[in-house]
Amino acid sequence: MLSRKLLNNSIEYLKQQGFENPDVGIVLGTGLGQLVNQIEDQKVAHYNNIPSFPLATVEFHTGKLIYGDLGGKKVVVMQGRFHLYEGYDFMDITYPIRVMHGLGIKNLLISNAAGAVNLDMKKGDLMQLDDHINLQGGSPLALKNIAEFGDRFTDMSAPYDQDMNETLKSLAQKHDITLHKGVYASVVGPQLETRAEYRMLKILGADAVGMSTVPEVIVANHLKLPVCAVSVLTDECDPENLQPISVPEIIEIAGKAEPKLVQLFKGLIESL
Length: 272
Ligand code: HPA
What we know:
31% of the residues lie in helices and 24% in strands. The chain has a 5-stranded mixed β-barrel with strand order 5-8-7-6-9. The protein is α/β, with parallel strands linked by helices. Hypoxanthine binds at residues 113-115, 187, 192-193, 209-211, 234-235, 237, 250. Hypoxanthine is lined by residues 113-115, 187, 192-193, 209-211, 234-235, 237, 250.
């Protein structure tokens, strides 16, 4: 069960490793690791070495927190996130958000790879999240001892920070980057959707679909931590003409689109 004591174990260890007073927290999505190369004066903590941190699976042995300088700020970056589809629960996957908040971050930036349900959006485009639909069947706030951490009922009327979204929009215009704005639906996965499910997602009002982000955003809102999120659209989910997709292809497309995301995030961090 989540407790202050567990969180403090992680936070104290990271402070000892030199993770002092970060300004910004960043969560990097699948195939989106290039931002890390731009961080100067890095300190690294492997997830498996951080006390009380969720244990990384074999696939995720590379998971690490990186601290350093980017865009004139101190940042802490999660390289490799935890997903429900790996068997983690809502508490595990949002634990690092609470740790980064405990370290002192004032803003949270999230990226992910997602499928485009809105067919005006194309493979390789970026979409900023304006809102979301939680289809993961649970909440990271469904805790018996939630009172230790904040309110029970968290307002979600504006889950994504308007100021950061405005800044992202103007940066995209300045750098001639296509940045859509839309609704992200989160599913558990790991299987991709059927044609009937893509039709359903469209009817529900989703523009994109992915397997992450929403739990982290819910916890950020619980913590009153301003958050923004950008999806890299890696496949077009057209139920009338659905092509089989492969994860290596998703990762390849994410990698190609990533420099645009890095440029936006770097600019945003500079502006904060
Ligand atoms: N569905 C769910 N998750 C995804 C997709 C998708 O089509 N593409 C990338 N992540």
